[in-house]
Amino acid sequence: MTDSTTFHELCHTIQTIRETRGSNAKIATCADYLSQLSDDTLYLASRFIGEGAFDNISGKRASVGSRTSGLAAADFCAIDYDLVFKPCRTATGSSSETIEKLMFATPAAREKREPKKWGLSEIEEVFDRLFYVSSRSDKQDILLDTWQQMTPVEIKYFIRMLGQGSLRIGFETRSLVSAIAKAFGHESETVRYAHMITGSTGKTAVLAKNNRLDEATFKLFHPLSFMLASPIESRALDSLDGYICEEKFDGMRCQLHASGNEIKLFSRDLNDITKSFPDIISTYAGKELPPTVLDGEICVFRDNTIQPFQLLQKRMGVKKPGKKILGQYPVIFIAYDLLYNGSRPIFDEILNERRTQLRKIAREYNIPMTLQFQVDDREHLETLFEKALAHGNEGLMLKKEESTYEYGQRRKSWLKVKKPGGTFDTVMMYAHAGSGKRGGTYSDFTLGISVKEDERYEEEFIPIGKAYGGYTDEELKRMNKKIKELTVEKYGPTLGLLPQLVIEIEFDDVQINKRTKAGYTLRLPRFKAIRWDLGPGDVDTLKDVERYYQQKIDAERTDQSENPSFFRPTEVEE
Amino acid sequence: MRLKKAGYQGIFLPDLGIAMDGTHPDADYTFVTHAHADHMHRNRSAHTHASRPTLRLMEHRGFRGSSEALGFGEPLVTDRFSVTLYPAGHILGSAMIYVESDEGSLLYTGDYRTPPSPATEGFEAPPQADFLITEATFGLPIYRWKTNEELADEVRTFAQHTLEEGYTPVFLAYNLGKAQEIMHLCSDLDHPIMIHGAGHKLCDVYDEAGIDLGPYEAYDRESCEGKILVCPSSALSGGFASNVRKKRIAYCSGWAALESRRTQLTVDKLIPISDHLDFYELIDFCEQLSPKKVYITHTPNPDVVKHFLDERGINSSFLNLEMESDD
To answer: A440, B264: Cβ pair inside 8 Å?
Structure first.
């Protein structure tokens, strides 16, 4: 047992995983490494690989952005941030990789760095210190101090861990779970289950090592990863047999934990959002529920009608909403699943069973829950879909009646049926150097709409959104060729273009955003088609965007008095 | 010193009537630094001076005009100037062109690498030049190469380990220069090598120069398994060795320094072995020649190079050979 794996060994293993092709070989490499570790280091190593600097559920974040680390690195390497660092980042397509290279290459960094053997717990202390200080300069002081004693590859992964996202080594949580299973001789499924319960790769690994996976018990007030839905288009569906249908709300996904008068709310990214919704808290605290976990949706609900997402937006991110805002945008929590039933977790029971128990609790405690509909055939599905849209909802959810609660996964058990979003014809204004696997090409684009005839603006076009993706490799090549011809200015990684290339974009929704020039942003903009056949004169205008937004808000919404999308079992039953 | 554009990416010195790496209607003399496609012209009517291996390689690649070989360090003297070729260490035959005249001395580097590729004549430079026209392909401070020894070791180790594990090693390397360097590095292993046809026909020039390329033959699909294979990356998608299931692929190029190449090319190993000098070698070289003026070419980042030269008090500007029109 190497009780003291170093951070360097960990990073070396991560780099080896990066350079290994094939998931089985990657898993074997990782398993081999993990199997040698003692409890404490195993916990940290699994956490650093699987989640980042902190346990996701801890809510802690280092809050070190790429500008903070980039500026610190430029300083450390004695180079100019704008003139030198930025072009380097454009070439690599990755800030952390740029820093790794500069740490190896620049004379200043070569002279300053004196790598030492960092234990994993020492690295944990550094992460914690970064969490506790808040100013950029304090954070940079810690970074400079730490980097001075690291090798370039350690620095690269140190920075990626701070991001609390993927390490970008082609090794996601599912692979790590398999590696933990392999390292300690368990079934992947058992480990996966423990991970769902604990929400922590570190804890899961330690339990697996000590043959204590059965101790992984769900804890109230610790969020559980959400089960996710796949778009129906991406999953060829032969038959609707075995699926049940609910309306899909255009709200905010939420997990509600309750026990007596204690209530906590968690968002889809497992953040605690309890404070933002005191109205929900007081409603549920009054119910004195037994230990319960509900999965559901928060919507603005007024005049017996579900209100548009645009209004819910006024509540999102407001940490302490005042009286006025609470009165203007009252919210409701609508449950559609039950994960903890008063005495035990029930996510491995099938949907029908969970719903039966949900209904019982809902009846007893007056909780609004979704209605479910049997789908007879495709035509019936169409009717239900139209009704959902009439309610102002997004569409439908199809759920497999026999399915268990598959946390954190997108499979066939839940399917979402959504109306295709709106489209605008836009013009490409700027091209940005891609990152990651698209490094070295221009793959992200700022798209503009026309304000030529708009007296509020002096420009011809203003940006409305940024899109990356939705095109093929061939199209990307062809666009890059055209972009070369259209380039008139260069600002570091960004090219300013003659407004000529017309892109038809599709989006889910239009939202108000005061920080942008247009005053609006698009939700999930993506390429629909490159319109080689259109010119800048065909581009849609800001007025078109405003019209779309207004129509959305003004759209007639049928209230919930007849044919509702949700109900309160107490009121209708018995 | 006046500079003009010659051909696609070449340089014309109008006061001396010299064209380099391109042709010009007013040129009295035309020089080629090396036989890569973006440097050698194909104009039959331009009588061409270059090193002997460069001329031989140009013939292999379709040059049919008249020519004269010029040895390294043997000046060509006219009444207006004297021209000397210096070995550039980039590929076999590659030369830097040193022009001395009443206008002062000028060194045009073409593509160069120092320390040189082991599959070349080496590297040598004049001690000083008033004007330096230098390529800066890797003109960013993220580019610092490992030593030639470390790289040679990576190449051999990859080949050896791959073979030991029962797999066929495939090196993705440009047909002229990089391919032969890889073969030369592997020659110690004394293991059969197969090289892609387009590169194979150039190997005899290396043989003539006495560079050991190991026991090699031209690529043959049926018998290639278990040999060390060398081909350009474009050949792989064209079916090269697609019948060999157990193979491992190494991409050998300066661009292999970038992680994004791994996913873009789907390879097992990136070996950042370049036939250009790195950023720091470039800046040092500029300083060493103490030029009055440096002209920077062949780079996406002239501003960064200029910034570093400015810091060292060296006057420089970007010579945009790709974009500038003739006059």
So the answer is: yes
